[in-house]
Amino acid sequence: MDFKNKSIISIRDMKRDEIDFIIKSAEILQDNWKNYKDYLKDRILGTLFFEPSTRTRISFETAMKRLGGMVVGFSAPEGSSLAKGENLIDTVRVIENYCDAIVLRHPLEGAARLAANYVKIPVINAGTGAEEHPTQALLDLYTIFKEKGGIDGLNIALLGDLKYGRTVHSLTYALSNYKVKLTLVSPPLMKIREEIIEDLKNKRIKITETSSLDEVINEIDVLYVTRIQRERFADATEYERVKGSYRIELKTLKNAKKDLIIMHPLPRLEEISQEVDYTNHAVYFKQVKYGLIVRMAILLLIFGFELK
Amino acid sequence: MSEQELRIRKIRNGTVIDHITAGNALNVMKILGINGKEGLVVSVAINVPSSKYGRKDILKIEERELKQDEVNKIILIAPNATINIVKEYQVIDKKRLKLPAELKGFPRCVNPNCITNSGEPVETEFYVIQSEPLKLRCKYCQRITSQDDIFKQF
User: Fold this and answer.
1) A84-98: per-residue pLDDT in tens?
2) Are A114 and A151 in the same domain?
3) Are residues A217 and A276 in the same domain?
4) How many domains does chain A have?
5) Distance of alpha carbon B138 from alpha carbon A247, whole angstroms
6) By percentage, how much of chain A surpasses pLDDT 70?
7) Which positions ≥6 away from A245 have C-beta within 8 Å?
8) In the predicted structure, residue A79 carries a pLDDT above the cut 70
9) What value of ipTM does the predicted structure carry?
10) Of A32-41, A196-205, B123-132, where does mean pLDDT reach its minimum?
11) Is B115 part of the contact surface with chain A (CB cutoff 8 Å)?
12) Of A153, A161, B26, B96, which one has the greatest count of Cβ atoms within 10 A?
């Protein structure tokens, strides 16, 4: 499979064999990444973060540097040409002359596709608006694959803000390529958009929706927790109530399967109690390491190196 | 003289838009910017019987031809419409509209957070995923723009 010079814009553009290929490549890299430490020598990655980001940006920059490459770019519009009113198309056309690939985060949906249409170098979407975060979805799948030994046949629950969370949207579309049971657990106000359920009705995935985690905790193999954002609520009391009912503590897990894994795209606030960190269920910090490996694999692939 | 002809008389010169999806003639007038103050003679028939579609609307506009961008917009709300150009009571050109698989430049994407609504020098682009009622998927942000969303743009 050839990823050379390919942009990674949307998980919806990717077929299952392409996703599996990236997972397989990451697995090859996992224990041997030091053998690849000079592969991207002399390559420059442009990281254009039009929206603040800590984890994703550092993950990409580390991935590039671990492979011997260099990084230029900016984070948040301050100090960038955007503050002077330059449009995105002109910005990427300029950056294209300096770099071999672009990693783009942008507050507007469709920004990565627009950028990719105007440059000849590959563009990797590092999060656009509320819609897409394809590399997060890929690292989430890789985490599930590594921790559970496969993806098909699992019951995977997504918990929290399913309406606005871009990681949830990308992961839902990614999982729809697999034969899994997807349990969506959210307050009624934050249910996943009907449009997404509609899109997936012809896929192999089986979806159920509920507002109660307690009802399903004993059935699930993977619990993917996301943050419930205060700004989505008009009423502060309602926020406190909802937040409390979706907080994962040791007592929440008393009926859980022994091998349940708990994931989180981070940053975690109060939705997972720190006492959970020390259980075998918690894989959210391992997920960060897996993310680095997946991003290293993606960079090697788009620069034309096949992992064998 | 047929029942239909009794309802609206033949026109001498102008455009007859036939087979408009029933109930949409007034929206087509909106697309054409016709509000009655232009002084054009316009006849409208709404919900008349149609052997093909059950019911349909007809719009006859005298002394006016349509521009291509107007035709492109009409397709979006009346995909089965036919446009007849009339000269001296004769139909000299008859066009059946056909909804393309992809659209460019119109309508606007319904998603305010779409990059195409941000002032970038780029036209909107859509995949037509359903014709009636119309559903378009934005090629950029992937959100669905529906027929109702399009009506609101006129």
Assistant:
1) 678 999 999 999 999
2) no
3) yes
4) 2
5) 36
6) 97
7) A187
8) no
9) 0.89
10) A196-205
11) yes
12) A161
- Chain B residues in contact with A106 by the CB 8 A cut-off are 115
Q: How many residue contacts between A and B have a Cβ separation below 8 Å?
A: 52
Instruction: With respect to residue A5, please indicate whether it lies within any of the assigned structural domains.
Output: no
- Among chain A residues, the shortest Cα distance to B142 is held by A110
Q: Considering chain A, what is the average pLDDT of its residues?
A: 93
Interchain pair B138, A87: CB under 8 A: no
> Any idea what the CATH number is for the domain that residue A54 is in?
3.40.50.1370
Mark yes or no for CB contact A108/B144 under 8 Å.
no
Report the alpha-carbon distance of residue B60 to residue A17 in Å, rounded.
Answer: 55
Task: For residue A30, tell me if it sits in a domain.
Answer: yes
Residue A307 lies in a domain: no
- Boundaries of domain holding A52: 11-132+291-302
Q: Do A110 and B116 touch (CB under 8 A)?
A: yes
Residue A2 resides in a domain: no
Rounded Cα–Cα distance for residues A154 and B39 (Å): 68
Transcribe B30-46 into DSSP letters.
HHHT--STT---EEEEE
Regarding whether A60 and A141 lie in a shared domain, the answer is no
For the segment A214-249, what is each residue's pLDDT rounded down to a tens digit?
Answer: 999 999 999 999 988 777 777 888 888 788 778 999
Q: What is d(CA A94, CA A144) in angstroms, rounded to the nearest whole number?
A: 39
Q: Both A176 and A280 in a single domain? A: yes
* A206 shares its domain with A297: no
**Residue A281 shares a structural domain with residue A144:** yes
Looking at the structure, do residues A187 and A71 belong to the same domain, yes or no? no
> Are A109 and B121 inside 8 Å of each other by CB?
no
What pLDDT shows up at residue A137? 97
